[in-house]
Each structure stands twice: as structure tokens, then as C-alpha cells.
Description:
The complex is a heterodimer. Chain A is an all-alpha fold. Helices cover 71% and strands 0% of the residues of chain A.
Amino acid sequence: MLATETSPPAAAGRLALAQAPARNLALFAASVLALYALQPAMPIRQMDFWLPTASLALTVIVWAATSSAFATRRQPDRATLTDAAFIGGIVLGIAALRFVEPLSALITRTSPPAVLSVLAALAITALLAVAAGRIIGPRSAWTTALVIALVALLFALKYEPLTQAFAALLRVTQGQSAAQASSLDVRWLGFSYICFRLIAALRERASSRLPTVSLREFVTYAVFAPALIAGPIDRPDRFLKDLRAPFAFNWPDATEGARRIAIGAFKKFVLADWLALLALNEVNATQAQGAGWMWLLVYAYAWRIYFDFGGYTDIAIGVARIFGVRLPENFNRPYLKPNLTQFWNSWHMSLAQWFRAYYFNPLARALRTRAWATPAIIFVGQVTTMLLIGVWHGVTLNFALWGLWHGAGLFLHNRWADFAKARLTSSQERPHLQRATNAAGALLTFHFVALGWVWFALPDVALSLDVFRKLFGL
Amino acid sequence: MTLDARIALRIAAKALVLFAALNLVFALTDPVPALGRLSLYNALWPGRARLPYGDDPARAYNLSLFDLNTMFASHELAGAPKRTDEYRVLLIGDSATWGWLQRNEDTLAGQLNAMRLKTADGRAVRAYNLGYPIMSLTKDLLVLSRAVAYQPDLVVWLVTLESFPADKQLAHPVVQHNAEAVRALIAEHRLRSRPDDPALLAPTFLQRTLVGQRRALADWLRLQTYGALWAATRIDQHIPETYEPAQRDLDADESFKGLMPPTLPKDALAFDVLDAGIRTAADAGARVLVVNEPILVSTGRNSDVRYNFFYPRWAYDQYRALLRDHLELRRVDYFDAWNLVPQEEFTNSAVHLTPAGSRMLAQALAAVIAGRG
Lengths: 474, 373
């Protein structure tokens, strides 16, 4: 081969290497912009600007707290300064649109706040980030404090009285009447997911499993546009592996991504939105009479939530795939699983894995060291994990009951599986019996899950109990 | 260009061609009216007791749509073969007949059916509610022209002055979106409305494609789906606990639709449409009873000038006289119920009745209807 000739694989490799930084820069910029563009308007003035800015600020502070490079150097490196300047530039650019009247709400829903206050916010963020970088070590109590602070903020956003108080506080800062505050005032787009990614990074850093990560990579991970609204919740190390891999636009990935987007759009905008007409809600739970119709509403809700959430996930995975990022799957035919344990291994998988990694496993280890009996560890672990997953959707009694419903179900299944493993081995030797058992199990599991949605879909316990009464003709 | 890129582009091109072809075929064949005849109502779900109409689908499991085939196919009338012992009565009219703020059993049709009336020859009176919340005689004629296919014995046509102004006949979406049918009625009955009136929509080619008809298709699907909730609840209207009551203290305004006293010109009213409806029913072998529906007769401020929000006294009085004379001349049965119901039995408008008001009207009509049988 002549020295001037280039073999196709080598050329493709170089092309891939050349495209990766451009792709990463585009994903970084698009994710920051999407944070603002997707944030809905709120009754509190300029919150559609400040809440995305707060998401970015928290992300930058957590990055500084988890950045080993930051802690060991006196000055931030050039790449960090460039990334920080880039973020600041985008935020200031969005804020500066207020001076270009026809375009003032081009990115945000309403006109952005004064540039001076944005500059002040950026300066405070930078100071806090520097302080976090200097003070918070990998295993310091500050890491735990930061995790607790994030959880507390999430709790405040999920617990209606606190959200209302938070809204009142925000209203006062904007010169609006606190008396008008409502929990609906604060709709912080994607914060539940951003928060869990930040906690994941802090926990990975605490256990020294977090690789060195640049500010740009970290922001892209935390606010990754396709997964901003409904996940999946990726792990930092897995996400970074994709981001750092050579990338070249390729048609197989693009067509596969487009296929997933099309499937997701069909699930979300055709099936889920159609089933939403029939699905159980506060109004039709009150108005419908008769067990048969009530079952129809419950089934419609079960499938509606699956297609809605699954559709969003497909779209997120599809969009990411086009850009060479393989987000984790979130659903794997959950309603066909023969038991509740397998259901939770295939429903909102990234959330379940997050709780398993950062709550259930550490808790189980801690209880084991205290010599708790295995069933007790499983009971406490599963019930509290599911309770937390329940209240992650909103701190209400109904979400808590939904979590407890599944926690109790998982524990019962665990005990049953333990009991059956020792005694019922014959079905494994008889495939027909195994298939029949699996089918019956899937039917039973689906109905257990569907009945659980009654707690999830309705706002209060009395109405949920009324629906149960109607379902069983009581 | 790589092989993968060529394959992807070829797939995209084929998809585009198929999509364009599908739209072209859709525009040329216009399958929406045929689709409208397909209905889960009267098959999987019970037929609706009144024509679909609604602006709060999430609570009322009902929606407003424009395709008459879809509307009729969802009505219980479409699934009710006429029995030999049935005396079939179709009620045509506006929102008062449809039953605004009334449950189905409280509407005029519901009240008449609850009375289990028998005709003189022993047939059971069965009333069907074909009211629709729009005040236009042309809309009534449009509904009636479809309804006569269901073998009515008697058509009770409830009218009020607000439905009569000739220049407002086409100013309603359901009329405008059924432009072809309305043009046919204009031609058949030589109505004064102009077939080329710009209010009658003429869809462009793009509006006739699959993309252009997506609203009609979505409406059809939504109506079929809401059938399950209609079956589960028998609710087709959200009736709020409270509402703004009909105005009784009135402005001292003597005008009616731009007209001033002393004379209400007969040619300002669409008597030609009324005649067309009477002819249509008669041609189908049905008798017609025209009812001047009850209005709120206010005793409040300026009630010496106006009866209610809709009508100044001079215009309404002249309308009643014109209507009576017109129908007498044509020997059409007429019942003037204008002041039958006291003002307390109106809800949120000068023509919307409470259930008790509706019962009064039903009782008054019962004798007339049974006498016709």
C-alpha cells in the first residue's frame, strides 16, 4: 500500500474521531438549550428561565463536587474554563434575547430576566462550584450533605404543602403576591431525572467508581435532551463510554433510531392518547357504574400508562441512537412477565436499577452486618424501596399506598418463590405445565399491577376504595 | 454515497410516494361519509339519546362534530327498527329541545317517553330527541332531511324567533361543514339562501386529503371511543352545580338583529325554510306539528320593552302573529307555547328549561301528540 493511500476502515476511523468532538459539542449545546426550550411557562414571572438555570447551576456544582481533577488543581484547566464559558455564553445569550423583541421568547416561553441578575446568578454558581470543588472530597460528609440537600429539594417539589410554600417564596422574589401561590406554580421540567443522575454521580464518586469527567461531559449526561422529560436514568460511567467512543454518522444507527422514534410516536400519540379517553381518572371513577365498565377503565389505564411512558422512552432512545448514544432500555414487555419480581425487572428498569444500586443494596448490606434475618432484610428492603419509588412520583398517600402495594407484592412473591423452589420442581420437567404456570402467573401479575394503578391514578384513598368496591361488585 | 445511505433514501422515497398516493386516493374517494355510517353505537355501545354535541369531552364523554352520518349513526334512532305498534315522534329543534343543562330523562323527549303515551288507535308513542344546540331553521331542515328516513309518524318542530333570521341561516359550523347537503336543499326547495354563499365551505383539494381530514377522522374515533363511557355512565353532558341564571333585568333596547320597530318584515325571516321542512316531512308521510317554544317572559327591569335577553316585545309579538298566520294558511298544526312556562323555570338562557319547565311543556304537548295519532 502506498503511503498516500488510505484504507477505507482507517479513513472511517479518522472520520469517526473527527466527528465525535463535533457531535459532543452539539449534544452539549442542544441539551442546555432544550432545558430552556422545553420548560413550560409558569404563573411565577421568569421561572421558565430561572428553573432551567437552577438545574444547570446544580449540575455544575455537583460536577465540581465530584471532579477529582478540580480538587487537585489550584486553577481550573483550560477545557473547564472553556466549557464554563460556553455554558455561561448560552445562558447569557438566552437572557440577551430580551433585547431583541421579536425573539425575546424564542427559547424561553416568556421574556428572560435582566442580564445583570443573570450575571449575578452565574457568578454565584461559579463561586459555589469552586467552593464545592475545594471542600467536598470523595468520601467527605459534604457529599452526603449534598445528596441529602438534593433529596430534600426533590421532596419539597413533590410534597404539595412544601411546593406551595416554595411557590410563595418564589413569588415574593419576583414581587408577586404570595397569597396566590399554588403547588401547580412550580413545574420544574425534568428535575426528578436530573436529581437522580446527580445523586448517582455523587454516590459513584463516593465509592470511587466515577471516572474523570469533564464539565461538558457531565452537563451533557445530567441534562441530556432526549432523556430530559421521562428518562431513562443512565449511569454516568455507561453514558460516558458512549460519549467517548468514536462516532461517525451511520445509516444503520440512524434508521434504527428513526424506527424507534416512529414506534414511540405511535405508542405515545396514537395508542396512549387514544386510551387516555377511556383510562381511569377522578371524573370517570366517580361517574362509571358497574363492575365490567370499571374493569375496562382500569385496563385502559394500565395500557395507557405503559404506551405513554414506553412511547416516550422509545423516542428518547431513538433520538439518542441517531447521535451514537445507546440509552438503556426502560421496558421489556413488562405485562407478559410471570411474576412481580420479573415485572419490576422490566418496568421502568432504569429507575428500579437506580434504587437497587443506591438504596436497596446498601441498605441490605447494612442490615446484614447487623445480623438481621434474610426475610426481614428482604421485607424492609423491598417495602421501603417501593415506598420511595411511590413517593418519588409525588408525596401523597395514594402514591405511598401504590408503593406499599408493590412492596408487599414483591415480598410475598419472594417468599412464595423461596417456598416453591424447594417443593415444586415438577413443572420444570414438564414444559406444558411450565408454560401454563407462566401464563397464569402473567395474568395474575398483570391484574395485580393493574389494580395497583387504582392507587396511582386517583387522588385520594376514599375514591380508590370506592373503585375497588365497584370492581368487585361490593 | 454509501450503500446504507442509498437504502435509507430509497425507503424514505418509497414512504413518501406511498403517503402521497394514500392522500391522493383519500381526496378522490372521500371515504369520511362512508366511514361515518360505521358505528359502534347500537352494536357494541347503546345508541345515544341525543345527537352528539359537547365542549367538555373529558367530563361529558361527548363532542361536537360535523359529519351528519357519524352523528346519526351514534343516535339510538339508527338502532331502533320501528315496531308495528310504535307511533314514532321525532323532536326537531335547538338547544332547548336537545336539553341544555338537562339529563336525558329530563329533556322533552325523556319526559314524553316517561308518560308512556298511547295514541287513540293504541300505538305507543316513542319520542326521539333530534334537537341540536344551534338556532337555525336551515340546521333543523338539514337534520330533518336525514331524519325522515327513520319513518316518523309525527315531526314535532320546536322553533323560536332566534332561529328565523334569514341572514343568519348559514352562520353555524355544522351548516357550513355540510355545504354539499345544504346546497342540495337550497336547490331542491328553492330556498333564498345562496348556494355560492361564502359561508358554505368548499374544501380545497388539500383539505380533502387524509392529512386535511385528520380532524374528522379523529372526531369519528373519539366519538366511537366515548361510547364506552356513555355506556358506563349514561352521561353525555356535564351539568355544573351552579350557572349564571338567565338575565331578567334587561337593557331598554328595542332592536332585534339590527331591525327597529315598528315592523318586523316577513321576508327577513326564513319562512321558506320552514315550508321546506314541512314539505319534507309530509313527503315522507309524517304529520308535522310546529311548536313555538316557551320563552322566558321577564318581569324584571325594562320588561315592558323586552321579554328577555333575546327578544324585544314588538318583534316577538309580530313574529308570533306572522308564524300563526303563515301556518294557518298552509293548514299546518301549530301550538304556541311561548308563555307556557313561568320565568322561574328557565336555567341559563331565555329558552333553556328546568326539568320542571320541560315537564310542563311535555304535559301540554302530550294531549296534542296523542290526539294526532
